[in-house]
Amino acid sequence: MPTEAVADLELRAAVPTDLPAVAEVYVAARAAAVPAMPAPVRPEAEVRAWVSGWDLSRHETWVATSGGAVVGFASLTGDWLDSLYVLPGHARGGVGSALLGVVMGLRPQGFSLWVFEQNQPARAFYAAHGLLELESTDGSANEERSPDLRVAWPGAEPLAFLRAQIDEVDDDLARLLARRVALTSAVQRHKPVAGQAGRDPEREHAIADRMARHAPALGAARLQRIVHTIITESLEVDAAADGSEGS
Ligand SMILES: O=C(O)C(=O)C[C@]1(C(=O)O)C=C[C@@H](O)C=C1
After folding, report:
1. Tens digits of residue pLDDT in 187-219
2. Which residues are in the Chorismate mutase domain (predicted)?
3. Is residue 46 in a domain?
4. Residue whose CB lies within 8 A of the most ligand 1 atoms, among 184, 196, 230, for a mutation test
5. 150 and 174: one domain?
6. pLDDT class for 2, splitting at 50, 70, 90?
7. Pocket of ligand 1 (CB under 6 A)
8. Which of 79, 167, 180, 223 is 20 to 30 A distant from 189 in Cα terms?
């Protein structure tokens, strides 16, 4: 939350000559955020060179200036807010909120970003501005190998935004279910007793327990019911393909 407003704050689209100052903010803000953020994995010089070389038609970047100097920036690619950083000496002065306001104006249909799980100050900042934590990962897909969360601003039409997200997840889920059905079918060819008669409750419990480690919010008992239904339906698909039973 702002404590003291930054003097003569101005917000404008970045031009290429801003990029070395933007890089400076990036490096300084990330270094100051340890341990709220994992330690940077790339040398500072490499990060500076990377940011300084951004193609601004792809990395849509806005800067916040005070007294003409860049004190913060926000950078978007598509519907992703890749970075929003404020110079440590200007933190909590409303710069971050002002930049986030610009981004909301640029993407009224909503946008997403990744935040490290351990970055409680950033998570609190985004939550205070109405952003939602929609997904968590174990960090295996990011450079820092640090658990993170996908946070989204659902925009001016939250129902449409969230339904679009549901459609994306359901597309993935359908592909996963198809893969799983194929495996359930294949396994049946290797069992002495196949199909419903050959169900193995112990194995199904173990599957649900394993899934609960990835989805603790659902819990093992609920996952057992879900797994039971998935397997029942999968075995029906298999039986129907065999031409012996099912609908
Ligand atoms: O592992 C087996 O024995 C299977 O038949 C596969 C499977 C599954 O789809 O995961 C299906 C039925 C059993 O009750 C347990 C697991």
Report:
1. 999 999 999 999 999 999 999 999 999 999 999
2. 153-242
3. yes
4. 184
5. no
6. very low
7. 184, 187, 191, 199-200, 203-204, 207, 231, 234
8. 223
